Here is the input.
Amino acid sequence: MLCLNDSIRHDDPGVQRSLRALEEALTLTELLLAAWAFARVVAIQVVEAVLAERARHPTFWPPCPSCGASLWSKGFVQRQVTSLCGPIRWRRRVGRCSQGCDIEQVVPFDEDLGLQPYQRSSDELQSLGCALAVFVPFTIAAKLLGWYSGDSVSPRAVWCWVQRAGRQAMDTLQGQLDAVSTGYLPTPEPLEAELAAAPLVLGADGVMVPFRPQGGQPEGKTKWREIKVGVLARLGQHRTRTGTVVTRLAHRRLVAVLGDIDVLKPRLWLEAVRQGIMSAPQVVWLSDGARGLWRLFDERFTAHATGVLDFYHAAQNLWKGAAAWLDGRTTHARRWFGWARHRLRHGNPDGVLADLADALELEGLPDTARDTVLKVHTYLDRHRDHIDYKTYKELGLPIGSGMVESACKWLIQQRFKGVGMRWSEEGFNHLLHLRLAWVNGSFEALLQVQSQVSPNT
Ligand SMILES: [Zn+2]
Here is the structure.
């Protein structure tokens, strides 16, 4: 290694510059940054030396893809790729057809390196760029990547990598959805015993995202569109530092789609099977009063899960009923509400429903008040199977859907709703699927697949 150091020192002004910076560094920060620059220069030279050595080996030429005749070398041609350490250059033999066919250049050496014909940046640089873009805007991702590699990276390049990887994720998902629709169920994700024994929680919510107007043009009025997000998780117990045991979503998986409930449905089902809906000891669907979501539950999950109406949402409606019936400014209204809420929570929802039914019979109740009380009664009655809160508590199930909704909001809010952000449908979808891959733990597998199957810039 000392030999290498000596020889590089004499050969290369970049190494001399960074060694000088190392010697002159005063603070620890300066020292580390200089060492980092030095390490990059050395890394590039080591890689280039290995490549130069390998490129001298004899080349095995495949037959011409057009006519089948043998290929000839037209000599050594330079190639450059931007890597995490900076730009790397090497020279290698490029082939052409001995019969003069007009074919793309054939470069067995690059193929052996796993490079695509027009790839200008290395896979590990692209993967890191995609990972950063999952959390921060493209301009910031490009800047951070530039700091790390010591070479400038354009936001446009990061954007392109995300589009490609996102497209790959969407294609993979489509393949899985097609398989499910023809009757093939996916294999459940392996779980540790403790998690496998915990209840599986399902839920969904809608989150609005700002899009560019039709056609994706930057001009014009922002169009808000709803993203449907579903969450699937095991209900974990966690002891805080003060010793309190709190419920927490563990092994969280998210699904999301730009579209309505009906396009969310197969995605949520696919992931539910993967998360063990067929074998989980308990499955619970948590949701507030949104009609569409309960329809989804009825159509797809009712045979597998206990549906729980968000208790706080139910209580809120109960207050609306109390205020209309007994006049919200009175103690009487507050007292009945307190009593009704207590009975709802502790095992007597039918008593509450009976009170509301009695109220509807009252003579002299104004029509507007009657309408409100009727609405509340209908609402609770429709959800009669989802409001046995005492039982749910005894089973250790949650009765609030807040956890579910905040998981859904987090997926979208954190990255897609920054100040001034407006998305094109394609740009949004690709990044969304990359973000889903990240939060669902499939990012690395995706990027490996991606680097093998798609052409790169
Ligand atoms: Zn040919």
Notes: Residues 449-457 have pLDDT under 50 and may be disordered. Residues 64, 66-67, 69, 97, 99, 101 surround zinc ion (CB under 6 Å).
